[in-house]
Amino acid sequence: MSMKKTRAVGFAVAVLTGCASIVNHSPNPVSITSFPDRAHFTVTNQQGRAIHGGTTPETLVLRPDAGYFRGEHYTLTFQKDGFGTQTTPLRAQLNSWYWGNVVLGGLFGMLIVDPLTGAMWALPEEKSVYLVPNP
Q1: Domain presence at residue 107
Q2: How far apart are CA 105 and CA 28, in angstroms?
């Protein structure tokens, strides 16, 4: 294959794919920790369904998207004997690699590929809480 054809194929691949889908391997694992550890936690999605329960520390994989152009919002509830119940949000943010579509001219990736695959969203790598002892 000539150098000109190789460049043309490379350019087509860059323009017709989603930058975040290529660079980011979504969904990413999220590390859940508490102080003190060994607290029971429940993950609830934005529809109010409990989708996971576990004990800290734990690493789990959660979907960052809740549909086309919608990031997922989770609620984590922590409980441990002798401590108050703690609730905290875990929200997907726009993946910084998503903006790579602008640089590479990938409108198809920006409007179709990354939103459909959920790669335009990313969850934090870790979430931790400090439990407050009961009086």
Answers
A1: yes
A2: 26
Q: Would residue 2 count as lying in a domain?
A: no
Q: Which three-class secondary structure state does DSSP give residue 133?
A: strand
113 closest CA partner among 10, 26, 7: 26
Q: Give, as one character, the DSSP assignment of residue 111.
A: I
Q: What is the CA angle 63-64-68, rounded to 5?
A: 100
Asked if the structure places residue 1 within a domain, the reply is no
Half-sphere exposure of 75 (CA within 13 A, CB side): 11
Q: Indicate the pLDDT class of residue 116, thresholds 50, 70 and 90.
A: low
Where residue 115 sits, what CATH number does that domain have? 2.60.40
Q: Is residue 135 a part of any domain in this protein?
A: no
Kindly report the pTM of this predicted structure: 0.72
